[in-house]
Amino acid sequence: MERITLKTEIKYLSENDTVLRFIKQVAERNGIKGYVSREDDRILIISQGSEEQLTSFMEELGSKMPFSIFMRSSSTEVIDHPEEKGFHIKNEDLNIIPLNRSVCINCLEESLNPTDRRFFYPFISCNYCGSQYAFLFEYPFEREKTVFKFFHPCENCKKEYENSSSFRYRYELISCPDCFAPVFYRSKSKERIAFTPEEREKLFNAIAGLVSEGKPVKVKTANGYKVIGTIHEENIKKIREIEKTGRKPVTVLITDISKLDDIAYVNDTQIKALSSQERPVVKLQAKDAFLERDLVSQTGFVNFKLVDDPVLSFIAFFLKERGIPYIFIHDISEDNLDKINDGLDHDVPIVNIQKDTEVFTVGDRILIKEGEKGILPAVLKGKPVYNISVAGDYVAVPVEDGEYLIDRKDKVLPIIDGFLSKADEVRLLDGRYEVINIPYNNIRDFKDYEGALYSVVAEHNLLDQPFVGIYLSTKSDNNCFAVRSHTKPLKQLIKIKPVLLFEDFLKTVKWALEEIKSMSPEGERLISNYAKKFPDIFKKIEKIQLDDNGRESESITAVINLISVILGAFEQNDLSYFEEPAEIFENKALDYPKRKALKVDFFLYEEEGVFYLDWRTTLRSLMSYKIAGTDIPMLSYSFFEGLGEWIVNQSQTALTKLKINNLVLAGDLFSNPVLTGRILKHLPDRNILLNERLPIDVQNIAFGGLFVE
Questions:
Q1: Residues of the signal sequence (predicted)?
Q2: Residue 1's pLDDT band (boundaries 50, 70, 90)?
């Protein structure tokens, strides 16, 4: 038998090493010799065997290895290599991180097999999939530290636990219906418990039946309670009223992925993202055939996701049989459960409920906008420091020399002494007080833009290099250009001219128009002409009296909100959430088909040695085009094209003058592909860096805070 050796490399941007164990198990099941190892950002597999063995091994890897958004390119080649004995993992010191992920194909096949004891079992998972973090009380990830400590494995599970060929070999959360809790139907008047496989099948079928009748149904998933239902006006209105979410977009859950192309424009990279084990939310442009589009979104763009939990998978299975290819899904708090009559429930506590992860695509790259599910907890490598960094709900702590855990602070800080005995510094976002129960030498604060920008260079192992950084975030008042030079720490270079924000945003609009009017006689004439041609906006604000109760914000989102309201893209009288007008304006740009832009003014002015982007000149420019008859989609597209061009020009100037090549982008505004795509296209010779392992905003800030100078 001829022995062949293959060398396979997979680019993999996660420090979670469970995939190495998966590869080892599949290799051993196919009689493969060799090894698997981590080589920086790559997984290296050396596999030896006959042609038949290698074919079987590669086919099983391809069909059963869960795809992750952190997986990139792969390659395989035949090589000469000494004969190996058995198959092993090089460097067995692995990071095994409990995450909340969708079930793998192996578990899904089990759960839909009528002869399997886990038939329609809603808590199915294995070493490589499912909800694990959801049930974790505290680290380390051991059964006795989870909800599962209250349930003792049955004899079948014990045998499976010791079976080295099983995907549940030594799996901490191993369980089955014989040794775990049942699910049940519950309404205000009755309850029905499902113990047997047949009863579980009937229960999930019945829940799908209620959904198909148009009723909203509450379901308890491993990520908390959700409400699902067909998309019609009564259902959407009800859940928005119950949860007081105003006009926020409602996510569409796809139950039949073969029908997605009928209702949305979707490319291969977006399909990969949706189908990944992290099961993120992806914003797609809806087609006219999606008749319910206007119920879930104010624009032509809709948030889509695939099922990510066994409970939802089973309901989706029966909905697909009924010809229902999609439904809505929405979080519901436990305080509001009694407002939905029918539901599916169980008595297993969910310890950690996580935010859905949102991703976006730029070309063939999948980047994370924001979120927790499938992303946190995370372990990242970086320059060795012994600091603790806290930013909002999140913390970053060293766990080994040059390795850091990023997680929610309520999960880590109470047991901080389990990770390190003392710290050099405690870093606090905006100096917000935290209880740290270990000794430390110093305490210092930092800003969100510093943490976000440093998180990017730390991810790319470039902490010793200079960079120009841009932070544009809908969540921050500190949007800016900043520079870390060859000799000086990070310093703000360009800021946004402050906007005075009032609780009533229409008062902010009146203040902004008064600002433009006071700039010059030309500004006063512009406002007068605009009021004559578009009187509606002025009728809304004519009785508003300005006062001293506003707060200053250097936020690009506040600026875009103003533009959206004044140009008439946003027509409501109030904001149901802060970035609502900006989102509508942004989506107008994404929906613009002609891809031709007008020249929009972006100017700087200097005040006390600081440069500011003067949004007043930008708004004046757009208002002039509006008076001349330009429609809103073209104005929106022109704004983002102009902003991108301005960023490119300012970046190029700073990079050239300071002899720097690294340009760092952070903040969720860069999830706009028009903006980010233009920057990437027009600065091809620069080293443009974004987060690839963490979200580009919020969850990245604590990690960067470790390294702020």
A1: none
A2: low
516 burial type by CB count under 10 A (0-12 exposed, 13-18 middle, 19+ buried): buried
105: nearest Cα among 394, 313, 401: 313
**DSSP letter for each residue of 453-492:** HHHHHHHTT-TTS-EEEEE--TT-SB-EEEEE-SSS--EE
| CATH number, span 499-689 | 3.30.420.40
With contact defined as beta carbons under 8 Å apart, do 601 and 651 qualify? no
Our measurement of the distance from residue 235's CA atom to the centroid of its chain's CA atoms, rounded to an integer in Å, reads 26
**Closest C-alpha to 620, from 490, 700, 526:** 526
Q: In the numeric block, which tokens belong to residue 246?
A: 């105003």
**Hey, what CATH topology would domain 183-360 get?**
DHBP synthase (3.90.870)
Among 518, 516, 541, 470, smallest CA distance to 622 is for: 516
**Per-residue model confidence as pLDDT tens digits over 294-311:** 999 998 899 999 999 999
CA dihedral sign, ordered 682, 688, 694, 695: negative
Tokens representing residue 654 in the block? 């700073």
- Residues with Cβ within 8 Å of 628's Cβ and at least 6 positions away in sequence, in order, are none
- Whole-angstrom Cα Rg for the chain: 27
Residue ranges covered by each domain of the chain: 4-89, 183-360, 499-689
Q: Judging by beta carbons within 10 Å of its beta carbon (0-12, 13-18, 19+), is residue 572 exposed, middle or buried?
A: middle
Which residue from 110, 107, 120, 328 is spatially nearest to 236, judged by alpha carbons? 328
Q: pTM for the whole thing?
A: 0.96
- How distant, in Å, are the alpha carbons of 47, 512, 518, 555 from that of 621? 63, 14, 16, 19
